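Problem 12. The chain below contains 406 residues. Write out its predicted structure in token notation.
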Amino acid sequence: MFDVDAIRAQFPILGREVNGKPLVYLDNGASAQKPRVVIDAMTRMYESEYANVHRGLHYLSNVATDHYEGVRGKIARFLNAGSEDDIILNSGTTEGINMVSYGWAAPRMEAGDEIVLSIMEHHANIVPWHFLRERQGVVLKWVDTAADGSLDPQAVIDAIGPKTKLVAVTQMSNVLGTLVDVKAICAGAHAKGVPVLVDGSQAAVHLPVDVQDIGCDFYAITGHKLYGPSGSGAIFVHPDRMREMRPFLGGGDMIREVGRDAVTYNDAPMKFEAGTPGIVQTVGLGVALDWMMDVGMDNIAAHEAGLRDYAQDRLHGLNWLQVQGNAPGKGAIFSFTLDGPAHAHDISTVLDKKGVAVRAGAHCAMPLMDHLGLTATCRASFGVYNTTAEVDALVDALELCHELFA
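Solution.
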């Protein structure tokens, strides 16, 4: 049985106060807090189990390597990948998508080739493709959302033309909370012979993910949103795409032999993991995923759906609050502005005085902001440890904002 109080007790930071008020942490879309089990595992690694991984042969190196390499299998189970060899470990989604841009897309795209994107994409799933636009003349083809913030999968499929070489799309918008039918997009794109990259940064923390069922070619996740540490993450790469990729970074571990005139690369996925990795961060991510799977992704999704529904009712009852995006089945993410002169930064500052942490700005989604006709919003994003009482605290703080700025 899901017990939110028991969950909250596992997160030390949730017991603190901010500005004399109990912390109400609603900035999970940017980065989630960490449970005690993750903090303790990382501390233990540094205190008694740390060494560099691979090739060390001494006791501590073997222990660290076992912990580190064990995470690959945990991620494979978390995403239901066909094999742990389909998982490339990295520092997060940004590195993963850049790896695909440099290692897979750049060698096989030329001027005039197209990449289809939704207008909702995070900059991490935009800027690497702009690199190809600037350097190789690749064309970025955009698909807009509907008025309610939903994204029609058929509109994405219809945007695919004879020059399209890749579709890159989020599974859940970090601004609107819109949940995208990436399975339908993958099926439609593959029918036209086009691979699909899915940005799973937001979705993977909120609902069960099955990359085999989705049918995607690439699926990127980032650890700091998954109740794990920053500097950790991974990307699932379908074996067919893995064979087509060239190395993104060169250095230790990704090679077998290096000579004056030649280099022999390691097997995948090691071929794409150069240099000393974020050892402790990756171990922390593995513990975080174990923790999430123990809680149960279905349980997490059900709890957050209840929070979403309650927050929708409360926020939509404020007739001076403009909530952006109301797609059916969206995640528990709410971006909003207030009627009147208050900027998002002003609103965030007032909420902070009440102990309520939200994010203000463009949320690394400037094309979406332009599409919405806005420069910035406030965003309240919920996680596994949030409660309906915290929704009420948010609403109370917003009512204070309305009084101050009306």
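Discussion. The chain has two domains: 4-30+296-405, 39-294. Students who got a different answer should revisit the alignment rule from Section 12.3.
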